[in-house]
Amino acid sequence: MSEEITRITQLHMQGFHCSQIIMIMGLEMQKKNNPDLVRGMNGLAGGLGFAGKNCGTLTGGVCLLSLYGGRGELEERENSHLNEMIQELVDWFEETFGKEYGGIDCQHIMNNDPWNRLTRCPDVVVKTYFKVKEILEDHGFLSSELDIDTY
Fold first, then answer.
1. pLDDT digits (tens, 9 = 90+) for 1-46
2. Using CA atoms, how far apart are residues 78 and 126, in angstroms rounded to an integer?
């Protein structure tokens, strides 16, 4: 797990946004690289294009769950548990960060203070990433050998 936290920190310091970091980490779990997808995740940054709406970490986490459980080709089917997984993440995010910061929008978490990008966002990203991993494991998408219980 410490390697993952180090990687998240590295990506943050390289200037990637929360939504992008979540997706990069998910792609790396699959041993994949997809710059087009990561580029597309940029639109979620700062709460939907820096509009201050839903936190990019949350929407990025939803996208990561969908990367595993969504439909991408004609012959594929969406996993029957995808919406349940998404709801679990949203409920957890609201309970964890909505209560702490007064809402789940980026503007609530940032509280009009750019310093919070450095102080709050890394914690939000790390905890959300590990929650997404936990949800994926609980629904059979990841090996149970992953150390996700110590965050």
1. 799 999 999 999 999 999 999 999 999 999 999 999 999 999 999 8
2. 27
C-alpha torsion sign, points 29, 59, 51, 36: positive
Instruction: Work out the average pLDDT over 118-145.
Output: 92
Q: What is the tally of structural domains in the chain?
A: 1
Q: Phi, psi at residue 133, to the nearest 5°?
A: -60, -40
User: Is it the case that residue 48 has pLDDT exceeding 90?
Assistant: yes
**Residue 150 predicted with pLDDT over 80:** no
Q: Which domain holds residue 6?
A: 2-138
* pTM attached to this predicted model: 0.90
Q: Which tokens belong to 82?
A: 């995808």
DSSP string of 26-38, one letter each residue: HHHHTT---HHHH
Is 148 within a domain? no
Q: What angle do CA 150, 118, 48 make, to 5 degrees?
A: 95
Q: Per the domain annotation, does 146 fall within a domain?
A: no
149 belongs to a structural domain:
no
Query: Who's near 107: CB < 8 A, 6+ residues apart?
Result: 47, 52, 53
Would residue 9 count as lying in a domain?
yes
